[in-house]
Amino acid sequence: MNHAQGKVSLPVIKRLPKYYRYISQMQQNGVVKVSSSELARMMGTTASQVRQDFNCFGGFGQQGIGYNVDVLLHEIGRLLFGDGEKLPTILIGAGRLGRAVSRFLTTDTNGYHLLAVFDVQQDLVGQNLDGIPIHHIDELEDFCATHKPQVAVLCLPREGAKELSGRLVELGIRGFWNFSHYDLSIPYPNVTVENAHLGDSLMSLGYRLRND
């Protein structure tokens, strides 16, 4: 964990993947150096904001002569993915959304290792989701005791998430990627939660189309 991690605000952390994406593209296009103003233009922000963001993590080199693209990509990659060890992950809910999310998790190199999928429906048990076995939810305790997953991806209805989240925290889950409409951050202040509200995102789009 970076020494400055404790001081870094959530908005800065949420901008890191976007930086990583743009800088990866630059590297693929053979770009060697990039200035804070060029990065700002791509990010839709200011050069001063880019410098402030990077200073949270030690600056990433000398701003005056531009940033080295390889160095930036390596350093931001280290912040996002650590030493390359993937986080052991389980997914709860093998419905349509769970299927789409599992495909993303197993094909995208994003620092997670999907170990197993769990569902309540007996007829799904024993099947595979993108090569990952589906277990019955009753096997959760035994599985977690053996494999010690750290992350749970919740692709189940609100009530299911509400009932299951406490059980998962007790089983050692430290982070949730939460697609249910139940806000997990309230009961578990010490657990890291990323709430992915598809409906909120869609409503934001609607607002912008109607009001911008």
Automatic annotation (TrEMBL):
The keyword Calcium appears for this protein: no
Keyword terms: Cytoplasm, DNA-binding, NAD, Repressor, Transcription, Transcription regulation
GO CC terms, sorted: cytoplasm
Gene Ontology terms: biological process: negative regulation of DNA-templated transcription; response to redox state
Compartments (UniProt record): Cytoplasm
An example Gene Ontology molecular-function term: DNA binding
Domain spans labelled CoA-binding: 83-183
Binding sites annotated in the UniProt record for NAD(+): 93-98
Pfam families in UniProt: CoA_binding (PF02629), Put_DNA-bind_N (PF06971)
Annotated region of DNA binding: 18-57
Major localization listed first in the record, in broad terms: cytoplasm
InterPro entries to which the protein is assigned, alphabetical: CoA-bd, NAD(P)-bd_dom_sf, Rex_DNA-bd_C_dom, Tscrpt_rep_Rex, WH-like_DNA-bd_sf, WH_DNA-bd_sf
Domain of life of the source: Bacteria
Membership in a protein family: Belongs to the transcriptional regulatory Rex family.
Subunit relationships: Homodimer.
Function description: Modulates transcription in response to changes in cellular NADH/NAD(+) redox state.
Name under which the protein is recorded: Redox-sensing transcriptional repressor Rex
Protein species of origin: Allofournierella massiliensis
Protein's gene: rex
